[in-house]
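User: I'm preparing a small set of examples for a lab meeting where we compare how different chains pack in three dimensions. I only have the primary sequence for this one, and I'd like the structure in C-alpha cell form so I can line it up with the others. Please keep the answer compact; I'll paste it straight into my notes.
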Amino acid sequence: MKRVIIFFGVLALLTGFTFFAFSSELPILAVVAFENHSRVRVPDVENMGLQFLESALLDLGRFTLVDRLSIDRSLT
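Assistant: Understood. Below is the C-alpha cell output for the 76-residue chain.
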C-alpha cells in the first residue's frame, strides 16, 4: 500500500512540474535571410519577406524577429 501511495505521489509531482514547464509562454526567435534566386529583379525583396514573416507571426503572441544581416553586423 505504501508503494502505491509513493508511486501516485511521484506521478502527481511529475505531472505538476510538466504542466508548469509547458504552461509558460516562451518567445520565439526567428533568424531569417531572404534571397532572390530568380533572375527577376525585385527591389527590396528582403524587406518585403521580413514584413510578411512578421505579420504571419503576429497571431502567435510574443516573438523576436532577427534578420541575418543585423546579426552579421553585430558580430563583426
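A couple of notes for your slides: Helices lie at 2-23, 45-57, 68-75. The chain has a mean pLDDT of 71.

User: Perfect, thanks.
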